[in-house]
Amino acid sequence: MSVNVAILVKIASVLLFAFMSALVRFVGEEGVPLGQVVFFRSVFAIIPVVLIYSARGELRAAVTTRRPLGHLLRGTISVAGMFLNFAALARLPLVDATAISFAAPLITVALAALLLGERVRAYRWSAVGIGFLGVVVMLWPYLDIGRLIAEGGADSAVGALCAVGAAITTASAVIQTRRLTDTETTSSIVFYFSLVCTVVSSVVLPFVWVTPTLAQLAALIGVGVLGGLSHLLLTESFRWAPASVLAPFDYLTLLFAFVIGYFAFREMPTVHAYAGAMVVVLSGLFVIWRERRLAAQRRLDATRPPTPPT
Prior knowledge:
Layout: H1 3-29, H2 34-56, H3 59-63, H4 68-91, H5 94-101, H6 104-115, H7 122-143, H8 145-150, H9 154-180, H10 186-208, H11 214-240, H12 243-246, H13 252-265, H14 271-303
Helix pairs in contact: 1-4, 1-11, 1-13, 2-4, 2-10, 2-11, 4-9, 4-10, 5-9, 5-13, 5-14, 6-7, 6-9, 7-14
């Protein structure tokens, strides 16, 4: 598979994720309990994972693990992130919730320095700081809690806080995934992610279950299947192209969210969302560009012969 095909697979993954987010928004507006949405997202995502790995003969490798507690930690963090992300999608315009989520790569840089001991130079710290200013710009309409309560918009303020919390948990899950890749295969990480999320989310299901209508049931199943396929396509794209090449295409999610939000929910982003998202995207792209330059420099240094002693 060529890099161009890997890019197309990545774009397909991003598009499916955008449609999944729209379905989450739909069932949220329909009043489906959050715990029920998370359960369907988890249980129906594991079905395509098992089918595809079985067809490839990779199921044994997927279930083999040396670090079950590491998978449990990652899965638990991811479930918390799902709850927060879905709560945000149910309360905010689709593009606003999506834009705030792009704080996650910036938070990942900070956590990698603090928890993994990665060396982060001034350039990337500057990009992270500027990116966080962009997040503040996006959050600005939701920060005046008193005004929002008076105008009946406190729900959107809660959604904004949930979106920030989801970005933090997403970054935490990325850090835990980096730790797991030292010993675990990609297939086992994907499989146990789906399995742990299913088990953990099922704990709350009996307390929140509401019998869905046919349309709600179809949307809930769609949330799970699209989420699972998106995750698989994302993983597949990384088999054939470096992460630094594929990462910029994540920002297509904003475009897809804008189009879907407008046509499905008649939503128009605020000026704050436009301005803040632009700052966050540019900061994220700078971090990606910087990572690529540093990686290229490391490869160049590795190929240079050692300097002879004088």
